[in-house]
Amino acid sequence: MVSLDAVSLFTNVTKPSVIHDVIMIWDKIREKTKINLDLFLELVSFCMDASFFCFRGKFFHQRSGTAMGSPLSPVLADIVMDSIISRAINAANIPPQFIRKYVDDLFLLIHKDRVQEVLEIFNLQDENIKFTCEVEVDGKLPYLDMLMIQTGEGRIKTDWYSKPISSGRILNFFSFHPIHQKLGVATNFINRVRTLSTIRTEEEKNQLIRCQLKSNDYPLHLINRMLHQPRPPEVAETPNMYRSVVHIPGLTPTIRRILRQNVPSVGIACSNNNTVKQLYKTAKDPVPYMQKSNVVYKIACRDCSGCYIGMTKNQLRTRMYGHQTLVNTLDRKLSAGLPYCDPEIQLLSQKTAMMEHCVQQQHRFDVGNPTIVDCCFKTQALPVLEMCHILTTPQAVNRRTDTADMSATYSFLIASVNDLRRESGRTDRSNNQHTDATHTTQHRLETTDQ
């Protein structure tokens, strides 16, 4: 038993190799697309050449290989690996008796005297992609998360395997995650141990599972219940779409349950705001404030407490240029002697609610210093976020028509929040007045005593 591992596969997959291998298997690819070969190769080439990033104010371009994290990289690497395996098998006089691949890991059964020869054949197929080799020891060879074990009868059995440096950590039971995610992680671990361990007895498997889950703070009674309950049947209907919702204990599970009963085509994927990513400073350069896109912004009025709420899918500075252009046009017309009641200026006031405020109140907004109040990667959510901020900002000068498309449910919830805020504000003012009156009375009593 031999395991071959490609060294840094993604970053060593070159564009000439990808182009060559795509052409060689084009007969299979053309069945899945309506694009012709020339355009297909042009798109692949463009995607591979578009890998760049900014670090400390400098832009870097990846000159070779596919980018780590790119959704295209695994597909291209898989095509190149298949080509290498095919060429290596044809180059060997005696091909391997058995070969399996998982991304960049290969498992082979070959004669022990030909291990070095086969390794050299694989390393000759591509000058950029090299392989390391691991040979079985005492009839055992780790491959992925399995331990392959040869028996004396010429058969292979398997056992669940973890590296010696493995910490054994999985999702902790006390972590801030929905209970169904914790149960899903534990159930998946149980199924993997039971499926991959063909050499252990059921009691040995259960003992291993208990030890691993207990080290991650799963209660023993819960572990025993999961070990003895039958596997749930596969659900025939799966949601057609998923939406991400922040996990709130008590609320999010209720929403999931209601949707599962009434709208089974929509699934809820729970997410957390507190992630490990927030503990570490990102290595990427932050996007400059005025270059951010998909944002909801606020512009304050210079002459009163009013403000304008808007949104933009483009860069913030581009939207500010548009606002500033309208303001400059207004000032230019006023400088030409036109009064505020002139039809041209009245027509200009219809452009945006901000311009309407500028014309009617003769005020000006601080367009050069906008404030980003919200952002979202999904552009379809921006109008909803904008309406929410308009309704929750008492000083907003936006028109009523800007929130006409708001759902009645959202409007009711926002109105309730505003009522609670106003009630809280009145309570705070009442408490402050009561405190001030108490201090005044005490001061008068002290003065009288003196």
From the structure above, extract its key features.
extended, disordered C terminus, about 450 residues, alpha+beta, about 45% helix, 4-stranded antiparallel β-sheet
Topology summary:
Elements: E1 2-6, H1 15-24, H2 26-29, H3 37-49, E2 52-55, E3 58-61, H4 73-91, E4 98-102, E5 105-109, H5 115-123, E6 131-135, E7 140-143, E8 146-150, E9 156-160, H6 179-196, H7 202-214, H8 220-228, E10 241-246, H9 251-262, E11 266-271, E12 295-300, E13 307-312, H10 316-335, H11 343-349, H12 353-361, E14 371-375, H13 382-392, H14 408-449
Parallel strand pairs: 10-11
Antiparallel strand pairs: 1-5, 1-6, 2-3, 4-5, 7-8, 8-9, 12-13, 12-14
Helix pairs in contact: 1-3, 1-4, 6-7, 7-8, 11-12
How does this structure look, described?
Pfam families: HTH_animal. Residues 423-450 are annotated as: Disordered. InterPro entries: HTH_animal, RT_dom. By secondary structure, the chain is an alpha+beta fold. Helices cover 44% and strands 16% of the residues. The protein has helices at 15-24, 26-29, 37-49, 73-91, 115-123, 179-196, 202-214, 220-228, 251-262, 316-335, 343-349, 353-361, 382-392, 408-449, and strands at residues 2-6, 52-55, 58-61, 98-102, 105-109, 131-135, 140-143, 146-150, 156-160, 241-246, 266-271, 295-300, 307-312, 371-375. A hairpin with a 2-residue loop joins strand 4 (98-102) and strand 5 (105-109). The protein is extended. It starts with a strand and ends with a helix.
